[in-house]
Amino acid sequence: MSTTFDCCACGACCCLGFDVLLTEAETERFEADPRLGKLTWLYRNSGGLTARFLRKDEPTGQCIALAGRLGAVRCTIYSERPNLCRVFEVGSPDCLEARAKTGLGP
Questions:
Q1: Is 71 exposed, middle or buried (0-12, 13-18, 19+ CB in 10 A)?
Q2: Which residue range(s) make up the domain with 46?
Q3: Residue 25 falls inside a structural domain
């Protein structure tokens, strides 16, 4: 028996506090749209290296673009989400691990 997961409702991978790095093209796209830009933060080190990431809710570590509660969520930027979010494979070992860590089970 196979299990079907609905990543648009689950949200486990979005609740573990992963850093979602934006590519250069995504950074430009997010910075050009104020609604998307406010969902990011800029990392800059003393050597001049910069990188833009999706923000996380400080108390929970959950992605700031996630709305709702675990198991009944929606991504508010789903059609505009970064590539790292797009390539996270539903039902993969990483997915199952995220579900287990957040208490959703397999």
A1: middle
A2: 7-101
A3: yes
pLDDT of residue 1: 43
Distances (CA, A) of 101 to 11, 33, 70: 12, 34, 12
Q: What is the mean pLDDT of residues 67-86?
A: 90
The whole-model pTM stands at 0.82
* Coil, helix or strand at residue 39: coil
Contact (Cβ atoms closer than 8 angstroms) between residue 61 and residue 19: no
106 found inside a domain: no
Q: What is the predicted pLDDT for the residue at 104?
A: 82
User: What per-residue confidence (pLDDT) applies to 2?
Assistant: 55
Number of domain units in the chain? 1
